[in-house]
From TrEMBL:
Name of the featured protein: Putative HNH nuclease YajD
Keywords noted in UniProt: Endonuclease, Hydrolase, Nuclease
SMART domains on file: HNHc
Similarity comment text for this entry: Belongs to the HNH nuclease family.
Length: 128
């Protein structure tokens, strides 16, 4: 079966031809930058302290609080920070700042707070 022709790497001024978006060298660089910026608080979410607290919150209240407020019954799968912690460890582990939500409600709440998943104030269109 014939393959698609190779195209230039999308990294600025890279002449390499590739079947992917970036050549192997630049793909590693792009991945590294993405990992640095995508989840700066990842270590907090991976801690055993958070896992235990999350499990406690979901055991204590197994239903989504937003859905319950709208007279629906949905299981909670996500523990949400009511007030965004932005890396504040004390606020991150404050049990009074946590609420159980279903994934749909959590995603909707986060999108409203962050303005389209972290792009607050950005209007879709072409940048110059």
């Amino acid at each position: 079966m014939p393959r698609k022709p190779k195209k230039p790497c999308r990294y600025p001024s890279c002449p390499e031809l590739t079947e992917e978006r970036y050549c192997k060298k630049h793909q590693k660089e792009i991945d590294r930058e993405y990992n640095k910026s995508s989840r700066p608080y990842k270590k907090l979410y991976n801690s055993s302290r958070w896992q235990k607290l999350r499990k406690h919150v979901l055991t204590k209240q197994p239903l989504c609080v937003i859905c319950l407020g709208n007279k629906r019954i949905n299981p909670a799968t996500v523990v949400d920070h009511i007030k965004p912690h932005k890396g504040d460890v004390k606020l991150f582990f404050d049990i009074n700042n946590l609420q159980p939500l279903c994934k749909t409600c959590h995603d909707r709440k986060t999108a409203k707070e962050d303005g389209r998943w972290g792009k607050k104030g950005v209007v879709y269109g072409y940048s110059q």
